[in-house]
Amino acid sequence: MDVMGSHEPVLVAVSILIAVAASYTALDLAGRIPRARSVAKVGWLATAAIVLGGGIWAMHFVAMLALHLDAPVSYDIGLTILSFTIAVVVTGAALALSSRSKVSRRSVLAAGCFMGLGIVAMHYTGMAAMRLNGEVTNDWRFVAIATLVAIAASTAAVWLAFRHHSLRQRVAGSLALGIGISGMHYVAMFGTTLPVSSHEMIPDIDPGIDNIDIVIAVTAATFVILAAALMAAVHDRRSSRLMEREALLWREGEERYRTLYRRTPLPLHSLNAEGRIEQVSDSWLDLLGYGREEVVGRPLTDFMTVDSARRRTDEHWPQLLDTGELREAEYKLIARDGRVLDCILSAVAERDSEGRLTKTLCGLINVTERRQAEEALRQAQKLEAIGRLTGGIAHDFNNLLAVIVGNLELARKRAPDEPRLIALLDNTMQAAQRGAALTQRMLAFARRQDLNPEPVDVPELVLGMADLMRRSIGPSIQIETRFPLGLPRARVDSNQLELALLNLAVNARDAMPDGGTITIAAREEVIVADGEPDSEELPPNHYFCLSVTDTGTGMDDDTLNRAAEPFFTTKGVGKGTGLGLAMVHGLAAQSGGRLVLSSRPGKGTTASIYLPLAEAAAKKSVGSDAYSASAKVMEGGQARVLVVDDDPLVLSATSAMLEDLNYRVTEASSGKAALAVLDTGADFDVVLTDQAMPGMTGVQLAAAIRERRPNLPIILGTGYAELPQDANAGVLRLGKPFGREALHRAIDTATHRPPDNVVNLPSRIG
C-alpha cells in the first residue's frame, strides 16, 4: 500500500512541531555545556541528549500515527524501546564529541554522520517494531536520500549546538533542524510500501503495544521536552538576573576602578599590545600638560625625545615582552609646553591564557628636580675641587711673589740712580703686584670669605678690574662705563664686589652670543618712605646703585622671577651652576642692600645692586700714606722679631726686609724650631709665622706660644684668602705677598697694641 496521501494533516503538523521544539530546546541546552563545570556539564549533556533523541523518537511515532491503515497495527515493545535508546545514545555521543574545547570541522562532520546514521537506524528500528499482517518493503533509493538528509540535519545540529549565535539565529536553526529531521522521516516513508490485508493480527506474534500506548509514550516524551524547555527557561531567567547583577557590579567596579585610576596622585598609564596608550591618570596628564583626548590611542614614544624613543623601541620593549616587567627605565619625556622632563618608568605586562600580551600597566616618577639637584651638587663639587686646587696654587704663588716683591723692594732701594735700571725694576714690581692682585681674585673664586665691609670707591674698583673683565668676556663684547663725578663711596666687601661684577659680566656675555655691549653705571639714589616698585623692600635711606646692563636676549617673566634662585640656570648642562646671581643677591642682602633685576625678551637685562653708603668717618680711616709716614718714623727701631717659615726663599726674603728696617731678626724653619728658640729664654717683641707649614701650622704654633708667653704678639702670614676657623681672634693677619711698608705696618701694629684694660678716649680740644 502506498503511504503517501494517507496521512492525517494535523498529526503531520504535530510531528513537525515536536521536532522543531525538541531541536530548539536541545540546542539551547547544549549551548550551556562548554561553560559548565564537570558535574553540571554531564547533566546538561544528558538532558540535551534525552530532549533531542526523545524528540526525534516522538516525531517518528506521531508521524506513524498519522497513517491511515486499513489493518490494525501494534508495536513490538523491545524494538520500540531500542529505537528510543538508539536516538538518545547517538545524539548524546554526537553532542559529547562536539562539546570539547577545540572542535575541528572534521570532528563536526564525524559527529554529524554518526548522529545521522543513528537517526536513520532509529527510524528503521521503529519501522521494524510495527506488527502488520504482511511484509513491509523499502526502496533503497529513498533509504539513501533519507540517510543523506539525516546526516545533513545532524551535522547542522552539531554545528549550531556549540556556536555563539543570537536568538533569531537559534530559532532559524531549530526550524531547519526540525524540518530536516521530519523531512528525513517522510522521505523514508516515500520509499516504504505497507501491505494491505485483513484486520486480523499475525497469529504467531504476541500482541505488542497498540496506538493508545504509543500516544501515551509520545505524550510522555513531549512532556519531557516541555519540562526541559521550562527548566532551561527558569535557568535562563535566573542566569539572566545573575548576569544583570554581575554586569551591574562589573560596571560599578569598572567605574570605581576608572575613577580611582584617574584620580590617583601617581602618574599612571596603561598600554595595549601595540604599545599605544589606553588609559592615563589625571596626574599623568597634569605632569605633561596634555588633554586625555590628545594622548589616548597614541604610542608612548610620541611623547619621548628621539634618544629615549630609540632605547624604548630597541632595548626596553623587547625586554618587557621577554621578562614581563621593566624596572626603573630612565626616559626624557616632552611636555606640551616643550619642557623636557626626566622620568623613571616601571611596567608590568599582562597576558592571556595563551601567553599573548594583552596590556601593560606602567607608572612614572618625575625625577627632574632630583636630577637638577644632583647636577647642581656635581657642579658644586667640581667648584669645590677647583677651589681647593686654586687655593693651593694661589698660596704657592703668593709665597713666590712674596720673595719677588721683597727682593725687588730691596733691590729698588739699593739700586744706583740709573734711570733705565729704575724703570726695569718698577716695571717688574708692577708685574709682581698685578700677579698678586690676580692671585687674590683666584682665592676669591676658590673660597667663601666672611664679608669685610669697608668704604669702596666703586669707579676706581671697576677701572682696576677692567683688564680682567675684558679677558673674561672676550673681544666680541664692548664694555662701557658711566660714572658721574662726585659719587660717594659704598660700604661693601671689595673682593666680593669684584666677584659679583665679574659674575654679572659673564652672565651678560652668555646672553649675547653674537656680541653686544655691557654698560656698567653707578648713581646715588634716595629711597623715600613710600618706596619704589623695584626697591620697596629697602628701608628709606640714601643708597649707592651699581648697575650692569646688557643688550642680550633678555628673560621672560617666569625666568626673571626665578633668576636669583640657587641652582636655577637657563644654560646648558655643564655651562652654568646657577649660583652666580644667587651669590650677588646674597652679597647685596648681607651688605644691607638688594639686587634688583629687570628684563624683557629681546631687550636685554639690567642687574642693579643697591648698597649702603659709607659713613663720612669711614672716609677718614688711616690709609697707606699714614702707614708710610709711620714707617719712616719707626725705621731704625731695634724690635726683636722671630721669623718662622718652612720655605727658605720666603724666610730669607722676609728676614732681609726686616733687617733693612733695622729689626733684629732670628730665623726658624719650622714651628718646633721656633718653640725650641723660645724655650732657651730668648726675648722677642713679636713672632711672624707662616700658616701652612708641615708638622705644625701657624695657628697651632700661635696656640703653643700663648701657653708659654701669653703677652707675646703674633703675626700670621698666609697666602690664603681667609684665616682658618680655629685661628685666635687676637692673632694679626698679614697677607702674602707683602712689601716693606706692609711688613713694617704689621709689626708696628702688633708691638704698639694697647693693653686690654686700657680704653682710648677721644681727645677734646679747648
Automatic annotation (TrEMBL):
<dbReference type="InterPro" id="IPR003594">
    <property type="entry name" value="HATPase_dom"/>
</dbReference>
<dbReference type="Pfam" id="PF00512">
    <property type="entry name" value="HisKA"/>
</dbReference>
<dbReference type="InterPro" id="IPR003661">
    <property type="entry name" value="HisK_dim/P_dom"/>
</dbReference>
<dbReference type="Pfam" id="PF00072">
    <property type="entry name" value="Response_reg"/>
</dbReference>
<dbReference type="Pfam" id="PF02518">
    <property type="entry name" value="HATPase_c"/>
</dbReference>
<dbReference type="InterPro" id="IPR004358">
    <property type="entry name" value="Sig_transdc_His_kin-like_C"/>
</dbReference>
<feature type="transmembrane region" description="Helical">
    <location>
        <begin position="142"/>
        <end position="162"/>
    </location>
</feature>
<dbReference type="InterPro" id="IPR036097">
    <property type="entry name" value="HisK_dim/P_sf"/>
</dbReference>
<dbReference type="GO" id="GO:0000155">
    <property type="term" value="F:phosphorelay sensor kinase activity"/>
</dbReference>
<feature type="domain" description="MHYT">
    <location>
        <begin position="7"/>
        <end position="195"/>
    </location>
</feature>
<feature type="transmembrane region" description="Helical">
    <location>
        <begin position="77"/>
        <end position="97"/>
    </location>
</feature>
<feature type="transmembrane region" description="Helical">
    <location>
        <begin position="109"/>
        <end position="130"/>
    </location>
</feature>
<dbReference type="InterPro" id="IPR001789">
    <property type="entry name" value="Sig_transdc_resp-reg_receiver"/>
</dbReference>
<dbReference type="InterPro" id="IPR000700">
    <property type="entry name" value="PAS-assoc_C"/>
</dbReference>
<feature type="transmembrane region" description="Helical">
    <location>
        <begin position="174"/>
        <end position="194"/>
    </location>
</feature>
<keyword id="KW-1133">Transmembrane helix</keyword>
<dbReference type="Pfam" id="PF13426">
    <property type="entry name" value="PAS_9"/>
</dbReference>
<keyword id="KW-0472">Membrane</keyword>
<keyword id="KW-0597">Phosphoprotein</keyword>
<keyword id="KW-0812">Transmembrane</keyword>
<dbReference type="InterPro" id="IPR000014">
    <property type="entry name" value="PAS"/>
</dbReference>
<dbReference type="InterPro" id="IPR036890">
    <property type="entry name" value="HATPase_C_sf"/>
</dbReference>
<dbReference type="InterPro" id="IPR001610">
    <property type="entry name" value="PAC"/>
</dbReference>
<dbReference type="InterPro" id="IPR035965">
    <property type="entry name" value="PAS-like_dom_sf"/>
</dbReference>
<dbReference type="Pfam" id="PF03707">
    <property type="entry name" value="MHYT"/>
</dbReference>
<dbReference type="InterPro" id="IPR005467">
    <property type="entry name" value="His_kinase_dom"/>
</dbReference>
<feature type="transmembrane region" description="Helical">
    <location>
        <begin position="214"/>
        <end position="234"/>
    </location>
</feature>
<protein>
    <recommendedName>
        <fullName>histidine kinase</fullName>
        <ecNumber>2.7.13.3</ecNumber>
    </recommendedName>
</protein>
<dbReference type="InterPro" id="IPR005330">
    <property type="entry name" value="MHYT_dom"/>
</dbReference>
<feature type="domain" description="Histidine kinase">
    <location>
        <begin position="392"/>
        <end position="615"/>
    </location>
</feature>
<feature type="modified residue" description="4-aspartylphosphate">
    <location>
        <position position="690"/>
    </location>
</feature>
<feature type="transmembrane region" description="Helical">
    <location>
        <begin position="42"/>
        <end position="65"/>
    </location>
</feature>
<dbReference type="GO" id="GO:0016020">
    <property type="term" value="C:membrane"/>
</dbReference>
<feature type="domain" description="PAC">
    <location>
        <begin position="327"/>
        <end position="379"/>
    </location>
</feature>
<feature type="domain" description="Response regulatory">
    <location>
        <begin position="640"/>
        <end position="751"/>
    </location>
</feature>
<feature type="domain" description="PAS">
    <location>
        <begin position="253"/>
        <end position="304"/>
    </location>
</feature>
<feature type="transmembrane region" description="Helical">
    <location>
        <begin position="12"/>
        <end position="30"/>
    </location>
</feature>
<dbReference type="InterPro" id="IPR011006">
    <property type="entry name" value="CheY-like_superfamily"/>
</dbReference>
